Amino acid sequence: MTLRVVLADDQAVVRAGFRTILEAEPDIVVVGEASDGRQAIDAARTLRPDLVLMDVRMPRLDGIAATRELVGETGIPVLIVTTFDLDEYVFAALRAGASGFLLKDVEPDDLVAAVRVVASGEGLVASRVTRRLIAEFARSLPAPQPAPPPTELTTREYETLLLVAKGLSNAEIAEQLVVSPSTIKTHVGSLLAKLGGRDRVQAVIYAYERGIITPGAGETR
To answer: What sequence ranges are listed for the domain Response regulatory (predicted)?
Structure first.
């Protein structure tokens, strides 16, 4: 299966660099480019890629607004690209529906891996960086009241949610709970459906915003 990607960044040199890295892979092809958020949405509507690699600051329409509109309308996964000094925008983009984020100085192998992960629908919380970003911004939110486990979740789904929010992969969760990875995949799908989340990133945000897990060393309430 070939993954079809649209690159959205207002810097041509960045797009060219990402295209070179991605198209060196036999299973990835860049089908379109955009220099602003409006072009990104138009390209995605027309080309129907498997993923959009989206910059945050762009003319006409920024990456946050573009992500919100694109994900809401098409459901096409968006992978945000930014720098640490734009973290506040990245957090807003994650809440708008982005499935993860990368830094612009990402290593080529990590860029390729991230594209594959997000295109597969997993969301990029397997990258500990995304979890750290969410945790950092959770510190700036009003302190949530300690929340009981969501009543709609089973005990095992709640346990899975806690471990997803700590950044563990399905395989790591399965090992900790002594079940098969396929069982964990089922639990993750079920809890996302019950919480109204699209992917693992949304589950992490849910856990932090409701005080189910606290920023820091992964302590839970």
So the answer is: 4-119
